[in-house]
Amino acid sequence: MPDLTYKTQRILILLSFLTIPLLLLATFTFYPALRLIQLSFTDWDGISKSFKWIGFANYKEIFSNKEIFGVFSHNFYYFVGGIIQNILALYFAIILNSKIKGRNLFRVFLFLPYILNSVATAYMFQFIFNTDHGTLNTLLDTFGLGAFKQSWIGNTELVNISLASVSLWKYMGFNMVIYLGVLQSIPGDLYEAAKIDGANSFQTLIYITLPNIRKIIELNMLLTVSGALEVFDIPYIITGAAPGSDTFVTKVNDVAFKFNNIGLASAMAIVLLIIVTVVITIQRKFILRGEE
After folding, report:
1. Residue 178 contacts residue 107 (beta carbons within 8 Å)
2. Is 284 part of a structural domain of the chain?
3. Which residues are bridge partners to 42 per DSSP?
4. CA-based diameter of the chain, in Å?
5. What dihedral angle (degrees, nearest 10) is formed by the CA atoms of 44, 49, 53, 58?
6. Which residues cross the membrane (predicted)?
7. Which residues, 6 or more positions from 291, have their beta carbon under 8 angstroms from its beta carbon?
8. 273 assigned to some structural domain
């Protein structure tokens, strides 16, 4: 490129480096997204070569059918579990950030559930929640609390609480590590100055710790909300996403691959995307406002 200016050569080099990433992005992100929107207005069954354009019929079906939109009530259990999970994660992070004996060992134990395979975790809790010879009911018998034995995943009133507790156990360590990382970035001089001024542990938590980790709390809450709305693996493996324990994403999977209604499933995916976007926007705008 001897006849080209340095600026032109620079632009050509940049474009050549960007071409492949942009092509991959268009092929595996933009095109599938546009195709998903298109299919959401059709009755395609995923097999036929042709499909019928039905307009907003799929979207009307989603909001009018309680068996579809009503499963969001099951996702609410995971949201509540996520809040409890964040509280516990912050609690353990504060404790394990102090100079206590064996803190590294405790960190490993609390983080271990997160690195376990989700399928293995789900199968493990199937045995724990088993009605006849499960670990949980056996422990209740051992401690003389047999009256509290339950069908933990067979009772529709308890199944979502049980499944949400599995999610809490698995992901609490991940949030704890995030909190632990940001706690270690807070200058120790702040705590020493507060101690000299006579501040107790609660006051240092309110006036030093929480203000310095507010951005991370926001991040974890965003992950909690989106995670609660998109739960799939735990209910799908433990209960097979049976009625009463299914979530919106498992319902999308069933509609698409069990009932071969790709058009309706595509519309459900679009609705989920819109709901997640709206909820996160509201959270950032109103609940967490002022943190810019």
Report:
1. no
2. no
3. 53
4. 89
5. 0
6. 12-34, 76-96, 108-129, 168-186, 221-242, 262-282
7. 214, 215, 218
8. no
Question: Which pLDDT belongs to residue 14?
Answer: 85
Tens digits of per-residue pLDDT, 154-190?
A: 888 899 999 999 999 999 999 999 999 999 888 888 8
Residues 186, 161 share a domain: yes
Token reading at 202? 């609660």
Alpha carbon distance 236, 246 (integer Å):
7
Helix (H) or strand (E) holding 216: helix 214-229
At 195, the amino acid letter reads K
Residues 138 and 129: their CA atoms lie apart, in Å, by: 10
- Confidence (pLDDT) at 39: 93
- Residues near 130 by beta carbon (within 8 Å), at least 6 away in sequence: 137
Instruction: Report whether pLDDT(18) > 90.
Output: no
In a domain, 269, yes or no: no
Examine the domain organization and report whether 56 and 76 are in the same domain.
no
Give the residue among 155, 215, 140 at the shortest CA–CA distance from 181. Answer: 215
Residues with Cβ within 8 Å of 62's Cβ and at least 6 positions away in sequence, in order, are 68, 69, 264, 267, 268, 271
| pLDDT band per the 50, 70, 90 thresholds, residue 40 | very high
Q: For the segment 90-121, what is each residue's pLDDT rounded down to a tens digit?
A: 999 999 988 888 888 999 999 999 999 888 99
Question: Mean per-residue pLDDT for 123-149?
Answer: 89
In this structure, which long-range contacts are made by residues 106-115, counting pairs with CB atoms below 8 Å and at least 24 apart in sequence?
Answer: 107/176, 107/177, 107/180, 110/172, 110/173, 110/176, 111/173, 111/174, 111/176, 111/177, 112/173, 113/169, 113/170, 113/171, 113/172, 113/173, 114/170, 114/171, 114/173, 114/174
Q: Provide the domain limits for residue 45.
A: 6-60
Question: pLDDT (tens digit, 9 = 90+) per residue, 140-158?
Answer: 998 888 888 888 998 888 9
